[in-house]
């Protein structure tokens, strides 16, 4: 039983507010309608019955009262009075409407009745008789004993009326007339009044239910819309939180690898200096110890040749040192425009390698911060170096523009391609870490027909 109640409660809570109101409010208003309708119809029934009885009683009293003697002085009716009542109640409009008639004395004795066998008999007073002897007109519709009426009246709508008979000069109740009136018109009037009352109550209840349902439905829709908007916002926030967590993890990973990358850069610089300029300087130093300079047997021509070779060796060493420095030192790009940075990187590559690069720029590029500008410059520099080294400088191209609200820069070539897992060394790895550390994306696409390196940055233009 408890489980059934729990299931019902759970299913009820899953319904919308509007549906809950339609069910609960519908049953509630239906119960209220039945209670109010029953009370109203009972009041209408009593009112219509009382008014109709009062009208009929007044009419009967106006016809019967003149035929009755002074009942305070005479305890029985004379034969002439009974004959007058028989003639009056047996013919005419009154005789057709009344199917049973009795005249009661205060002690319960029947002074007159259409059924002569009842005259003179004494009965216990009913509630209706007691109320009538107190001066009230009492009426009841279709609530009678079949023994009290004639057989031909059974099945007809009857209105039972107790009407007090008063003395004209004192107004004291001296007798009560009890009669049954055929109430065809009364029944139709009562049915019409009851139907009208039920229609009015039902209409008012329905109107109230529709009005309240409209208000509740509108409120339920508003709540559902707000709930849906809240769920969407929560979903968006969860997505943003997930993105922030992913970015935080990437930044932490980039920070952890920054030291290692710096050490690798330093080792590469050291290796470049050791294998290049240092070897040339050492060679020049060895030539300085040549017998050409220490001995006396060598001609001045030999010495001049040796000096020229030493000078060339030192010049080669200086050229390599300048090349290394050129790759390490950044130009003044913090204040330069994005388009100028791209042109600068392309021009330096063309001058250094003697190759050509196709540059394609969109009409308007945003002006990001210094970190983004440095990343763009290093990306183009390293991408073109790889295009020259691995792609043999074939079909080198650089393009930049906006797509999906993000800045993209692409470096491509028409070389034979390479395996990123095997060839992506210090340069591309460092670029990837640099780009991802500022929230960007780095993509490498390579194949037999060429290589494309693409970065995408979410940038905010600097004022």
Tags for this entry?
463 residues, alpha+beta, Beta-Lactamase, Heat Shock Protein 90, 5-stranded antiparallel β-sheet, 5-stranded mixed β-sheet, 60% helix
Q: How is this structure best described in words?
A:
Among the domains are: 15-194, PAS domain (Beta-Lactamase), CATH 3.30.450; 331-463, 2-Layer Sandwich (Heat Shock Protein 90). A 5-stranded antiparallel beta sheet has the order 2-1-5-4-3. With 463 residues, the protein is an alpha+beta fold. It is built from 12 helices and 10 strands. The chain crosses the membrane at residues 21-40, 195-217. Pfam families: HATPase_c, HisKA_3. Residues 374-459 form the Histidine kinase/HSP90-like ATPase domain. InterPro entries: HATPase_C_sf, HATPase_dom, Sensor_HK_TwoCompSys, Sig_transdc_His_kin_sub3_dim/P.
Summarize the structure.
By secondary structure, the chain is of the alpha+beta class. It contains 12 helices and 10 strands.
Residue share in helices? Answer: 55-70%
- Radius of gyration over C-alpha positions, nearest whole angstrom: 59 Å
Low-confidence stretches: none
Count of DSSP H/I helices: 12
CATH topology of the domain at 15-194: Beta-Lactamase
| CATH architecture verdict of the domain at 15-194 | 2-Layer Sandwich
Strand order of the largest sheet: 2-1-5-4-3
The overall pLDDT average reads: 77
Overall 3D geometry? rod-shaped
Order of helices and strands: HHHHEEHEEEHHHHEHEEHHEE
- How much of the sequence lies in strands comes to 5-15%
Overall strand count: 10
CATH homolog superfamily of the domain at 15-194: PAS domain
